[in-house]
Batch of 2 targets.
Target 1
Amino acid sequence: MEHKLEDTIALLARTPAALDALLRGLPEMWTEVGEGVGTWSVSTVVAHLIHAEHDDWMPRATVILQSGETLPFPPFPRDGYVRFKQVKTLGQLLDDFAFIRTKNLSDLRALNLTSEDLNRRGRHPAFGPVTLSQLLATWAAHDLTHLHQISRIMAHQYREAVGPWSRFLGVMQCAGHSSAA
Amino acid sequence: MEHKLEDTIALLARTPAALDALLRGLPEMWTEVGEGVGTWSVSTVVAHLIHAEHDDWMPRATVILQSGETLPFPPFPRDGYVRFKQVKTLGQLLDDFAFIRTKNLSDLRALNLTSEDLNRRGRHPAFGPVTLSQLLATWAAHDLTHLHQISRIMAHQYREAVGPWSRFLGVMQCAGHSSAA
């Protein structure tokens, strides 16, 4: 089950620039509209990624290293993005995401984690024991699940525009929803 | 059904840099492995995007403008990526994609398409009449379906590594497949 931490860091280091290149300056019809009532826009997804940088990955890694399984992870509410989104533009959110990700990767590298560290276990409030290795791999996979979601949200805006092609575009058939816990 | 061509161009112009920022220099376990026997790696997806730049979007737009519905679009075989992939590295493929996309968008802008042009119809070999507007919207949505696929292929490599988190990651539940015709 163990993964190579360098593979995870290589991906985590690239996501902010990839989202920046894709999203900065795009017309708001792509970035400020969701998939229906109560769903997230692309900007909201970026705010959620910032929230997770602050309250999810590194704080949970610290809990594992300091307390092991004795303390469950603190809760990570799905609507916690609100305090990071505020009234910021998407450009500001992309800046915030790049800044906090760089800081977190610097902190992660400074831990100089060993194989033994990666096998240490913590306690997830919903599904019990998890390893530090699994948590860090999930950090990278969480970027991918939201890249997947962003491409789906954007494609949704063109469901009508593509006419008969809609049934041939995989992204328009996707019912997958991101809900990393 | 009509869409704003500038929205489409804004996205098409950003995809090569977004893929470059995400993929260039990543370890090959992310980019050279598919989702099982006979499936595409990330590198193959990029080669397919290059193939579509050469043989799909602008050639079909030209058929619509020159021949309307009298000629069906030429075929676009799914394995046509092979002649663009060859033995190229992912870095070379990303360069090729950026180059041909820039050229195609320059050619598209030079057409100075009017609303009347966008409503002109061509004939898809499988599902009949389509408008130029629908073709160009599909060009952008096709980028998104493959960004969606790329995130899914990459996440697949971490199915084991994330442990119990796999069932909470939307991208790992996705069975959507890209098959733009």
Target 2
Amino acid sequence: MKTLLNILVITFLALTIQVNAADKIPATSHGISYPTGWQNWAAIAVSHRTDNNTLRVILGNDVAVKAARSGNTNPWPDNSIIGKTVWKDTKLKNWEAATAPGKFVHAEFMFKNSKKYADSYGWGWARWVGMDQKPFEKGMRICISCHTPVKDRDWVFTDPAELP
Amino acid sequence: MKTLLNILVITFLALTIQVNAADKIPATSHGISYPTGWQNWAAIAVSHRTDNNTLRVILGNDVAVKAARSGNTNPWPDNSIIGKTVWKDTKLKNWEAATAPGKFVHAEFMFKNSKKYADSYGWGWARWVGMDQKPFEKGMRICISCHTPVKDRDWVFTDPAELP
């Protein structure tokens, strides 16, 4: 009886931990799993858009960073993930002529897999919106449409920034 | 005799490797050792300065990133290193209203150690200039002078960017 109780308690605890962990990982966007840990990926570049007043850092997973550092980006290798973190810009406190990140807008990602995503030009396109990382589900065609000017650059706007 | 020759060859090779490795690490700036590997540190924020047309990503070592993520930044904990990578801005190809990194200018760093750097407000200030990472040796006072407006924020301009 004691053994059975122990098993029940352990099962309950295990389920609770699983549920809590699942709670914290946002749902898929366009069927693509959330790339946990992207906040600590290395930076490939930054950008400032004056048409919608946003500041961005462009990040990469290990495969993408290696490709960026070695100039191997047209095409980007399979398993590259490129992430773009977007904030509304705001005036930097204590330095009037500087713009810095204000409100977080969204994080968006391109997942390279030339076979799996053959129907969307070799990339899986996903976005998670706001601080609660709500999955964007309006379809990859919206992303692709905006990226069409760079179809000859493997659909990527970013040039990896020069680094020593 | 053969053993002696082997020892000499191995010693020569070991010395050669050491010299080559030393060749690649830039010399100290203000007596501070070069923080190798900073190119892959996580981003804390970005900024765009319109007074000198530069784009920046603000990076941190593990201690600084942990402090930034948990809001533990006034003061920043000892052993934090905050890095700022600076590029001249340039128009992003294929998106007219966007600015992206052009020529690399320099990488500058603040090393927190409240005892070691007590004479410079708890921070060691260093900079390496250009793609050849030439050490800046004009003195910490130049850095400190520019940072004086933020002396009540532990001498740091950057607010860690909001992240989910």
